[in-house]
Structures are given as C-alpha cells and as structure tokens.
Amino acid sequence: xxxxxxxxxxxxxxxxxxxxxxxxxxLGHAGGQATVAHWDDxxxxxxxxxxxxxxxxxxxxxxxxxxxxxxDLVSTSVRVVNGPETVRWxxxxxxxxxxxxxxxxxxxxxxxxxxxxxxxxxxxxxxVGAGSRLVARYGPGAAELAAEHVARIHAGxxxxxVQPYQHxxxxxxxxxLVYAGGHFLHAVRKDAVxxxxxxxxxxxxxxxxxxxxxxxxxxxxxxxxxxxxxxPWTYARVDLIDxxxxxxxxxxEPGLYLAVHPDSAPAVAAAxxxxxxx
Length: 278
Prior knowledge:
Elements: E1 2-7, H1 19-29, E2 33-38, E3 51-54, H2 64-74, E4 79-81, H3 84-91, E5 107-109, E6 122-126, E7 136-138, H4 143-155, E8 160-164, H5 168-172, E9 174-180, E10 183-190, E11 211-212, H6 217-228, E12 235-241, E13 245-250, H7 265-275
Parallel strand pairs: 1-2, 1-3, 3-4
Antiparallel strand pairs: 5-8, 6-7, 6-8, 9-10, 9-12, 10-11, 12-13
Helix pairs in contact: 1-7
C-alpha cells in the first residue's frame, strides 16, 4: 500500500515534524510504503497513492482557501484521513461550542466587530490557527497592543478568539492525550507557552518540555466524551488543563509526540493502514 504523508514545506515559522521519520519507519515495518509529500507541490500525483494522511500541513492557517481547495481536489481521487468533513469541522475553533464537555470560555470577534478587552488577563489567538502562531497573553494596560493583535488577525480574514487566561497552566501545564484507531495511546505534559510580555509575532516553542504523562480517569473521560461528539477520525489529540478542562481538540494536523512515546508508532501505523479499507 502506497501512503502519502502530507506535510508543509520547510518554513521559518514552522518547527520540524519529528513524528514523520517514525511514522515512515513504522508504516514500512507494517508492510506499507510511506512517502512524505508537500501538500502544495504541483508535481505530486496524489491519485497514485492508496491513502493520503494529513500530517504537518501547518502553513494551512495562513493559506486556508488554498488548502481547502487542495483537500477537495485530492479527496476526489484517493481516500484522505482524517477526512474532509472532519477537517472542515475542526478547522475553525468555533467547534468548541459544539462539545459536551467543559471548555475554556471563548468569545469570537469577527472582522469588522469591535474588540473590547475583557477584565483580568486574557489570551488572543486566531480562530483558525496552529502551533501557537499569532497567540499572546495580555493583562490590564495592554489594550492597545491587544487591539493591534486583533487587527493583525482580522487582516487575514479570520476571527479572533479571546479567552480568559487559565493560570492553572502556569503550575499544572497542559496535557495532550493521543488516540488512534479508536484507542487511547499515550499522553504528554508540556509547560506553559505564553509568558508575560511575549508578543504575538515573536517566535516561541509551542511544545515546551514535553514529557510523558499518566492521564487520570477524569482526563480520559473528558477526552473520550469530546471525541464521541466529533466527526469520524482515525487519529486525534485532545489538549486539556487541570479541572479537567478542554483547550483544543486536534483532528487533522496534530503533533502526536511520537518522539516522546516511540512505542506508539506501530499502533498509529496500524490504524492508518486499517483506515484505507474504511
């Protein structure tokens, strides 16, 4: 079976995808033939593959229309996972309102709407975004910079998402629970990304100090309730904080932290190969 792992071209704003070599090797050991292909490469014949797996297409967030056109075109000739329906549902963070689990309170400010800074500390991010790009934390007295940030997001034709800053992240970090083929595989914990004073346009590590984590029964229950409410998926990552409270549900381009949990690579590969028959 020929499998394409769709990824972005190298770019200064994108971190390397450390999952890819482990996935290529695991798929090969399982009897597949995996190739990493740039999603926007016109020379790629996607119809020559048996399966296209959306992986680190992390530049999609500033090329949304182009990415969705590519997705629609490719899915007419070959099976894509996770599928177009799931990608479109998960692309805009408004999906948070559809989940029957505790989520971080979210206010969306569409282009043309007035931005009114909330009290206390808060976060501004694009409603369509990846890898903590164009995300920043603000407090009282930073309204002018926050408004500049919102205008920068609106300039890309995207709504801004405003959320109260969750201080529990500073002490408890953020957890990521990874699933494939309907099963929980592993979890990691990472440190807080948004330090005070970090500008929205500064480089940052979106996954600082990621290390293994033992998910609690409450965290697993929240993750599985959220996933049960989502469109079909072959692989998924559920991000949450103490509470537990869900921060994001990642269904088409999540890092799977296989470098932290390399023993999970065969299970991901098996789920992908099985999905080709679905």
